[in-house]
Design a protein that fits this description.
Length: 159
C-alpha cells in the first residue's frame, strides 16, 4: 500500500481489519477500486477534450464501444476529432482533407498547425524587419546656371 491508502489503512482501520488480509483487501477495494465498465468509458469518451494525439481516444473508444464495426468506429472517432476548438483547423480537416480514420485526421491537423505556425512566424519576422523608416541622403547636384557644384538637393527615401 502507498500514499493515502497506506495512511488510511494503518491509522483509521480497526486492528482486526489490518491483521486480516481478506478484510483489508475488501476494505481497500470498497474505498479505492475504480469501477471500469463500458458505460464509464463511454462517459469519459463523451466528456473528453481532444489532445493532439489519438492513442488514448482510440483506447477509450475501444473499451466503451467494442461491439461496433470498423467503419462505424472510424466515423465516430473522426467526428469526435472534428470537434476541435480551432474552427479553421476543424474546417480544414473535415471538409478539405476528408480523413478516413482518426490517425489520418491527426496527421492533417498536426501538419496544418505546423504549416500555419511556420508561416505566421515568418510573416511576423518579415513584418518586424520591414518597419517604415525614413532615410535621407545628401546629393551633390550641379547648378547649371553658375557652373558650380553645390549641396542643394536632399533625396528622401521611404522604404
Amino acid at each position: 500500500m502507498q500514499d493515502s491508502a497506506a495512511e488510511f489503512g494503518f491509522t483509521q482501520l480497526p486492528k482486526e481489519v489490518v491483521e486480516s488480509y481478506y478484510l483489508l483487501t475488501d476494505e481497500m477495494n470498497n474505498r479505492y477500486k475504480v469501477v471500469e465498465t463500458a458505460r464509464s468509458y463511454a462517459v469519459t469518451f463523451s466528456k473528453r477534450n481532444q489532445k493532439e494525439y489519438a492513442t488514448e481516444l482510440n483506447m477509450l473508444y475501444d473499451k466503451a464501444h467494442g461491439f461496433r464495426d470498423r467503419r462505424m468506429r472510424h466515423e465516430d472517432l473522426v467526428r469526435r476529432f472534428d470537434g476541435l476548438r480551432d474552427e479553421e483547423l476543424c474546417f480544414m480537416v473535415e471538409y478539405q482533407k476528408e480523413p478516413n480514420d482518426i490517425d489520418e485526421a491527426v496527421f492533417h491537423a498536426v501538419n496544418f498547425i505546423q504549416t500555419r505556425g511556420s508561416t505566421r512566424s515568418n510573416g511576423e519576422k518579415d513584418h518586424i524587419s520591414k518597419k517604415w523608416t525614413r532615410q535621407t541622403t545628401e546629393c551633390m547636384v550641379a547648378d547649371i546656371e553658375d557652373d558650380e557644384i553645390s549641396e542643394t538637393a536632399i533625396e528622401y527615401q521611404v522604404g
